[in-house]
Amino acid sequence: MVNFEISDADEGAVSTGPDEGFKEEASFEASSAHTETPLISLKSRREEIVNGLFVDIQVPRWNDPEIFVRYRPISAIKLNSAIERRRKQKTEDWSILANADMLVEACLGVYCILHGNMDNKYSLRIADASGDFTKFDPDLSAALGIPAERAVDVCRSLYLTEGDLIDAANRLFKWSGIANEEADETF
């Protein structure tokens, strides 16, 4: 449990618990003329921590080159929303699509390595191996040689079986739960 204290400079009112309300008169301003307050620096620090969280998950069956996808944590709220949205579509593959949606949403980049050398990561852009990582985008679609109009189609094509895609999604979900807890603890 975190306790906090906020005071209203005009009236001297203090709120010390998470369930107590704030007075409307209390204001929290950040301007360039003022030094950064501890609350603002905490917010910035938490954003830094969260932005630094990622996991690289190897795509099965791709050995030469080895392909990895870098993911950020995914929230349970977005996961539940994707599941409900896809379930309402009543297609046979709604579950696979919901998992692919989450992989696409969390994707920071797709890259490859050669000969197990993790120090050299290469973009999968056809003409720019040293450029930015691709995502589940037209560049990756072109590199895979598949026609795809949607990011979920590119995702499904990169993972050669539905089981591989579901396994990657499950690994991401498990890691996201741990990563989100670590971010809150570090904060």
Major β-sheet annotation: 4 strands, antiparallel
Tally of distinct domains: 1
Class by alpha and beta content? alpha+beta
Please bin the fraction of helical residues. 40-55%
* Beta-strand percentage range: 5-15%
End-to-end Cα distance: 13 Å
Number of helices: 6
Question: How would you sum up this structure, described in words?
Answer:
With 187 residues, the protein is α+β, with helices and mostly antiparallel strands. The chain has one domain (55-186). It contains six helices and six strands. The chain has a four-stranded antiparallel β-sheet. A two-stranded antiparallel ribbon has the order 1-2. It is globular, with a radius of gyration of 22 Å. Residues 1-33 have low confidence and may be disordered.
Task: Give the helix/strand layout.
Layout: E1 6-7, E2 14-15, H1 38-51, E3 55-63, E4 66-71, H2 76-88, H3 94-106, E5 107-113, E6 122-123, H4 138-144, H5 151-158, H6 162-186
Antiparallel strand pairs: 1-2, 3-4, 4-5, 5-6
Helix pairs in contact: 2-3, 3-5, 3-6, 4-5
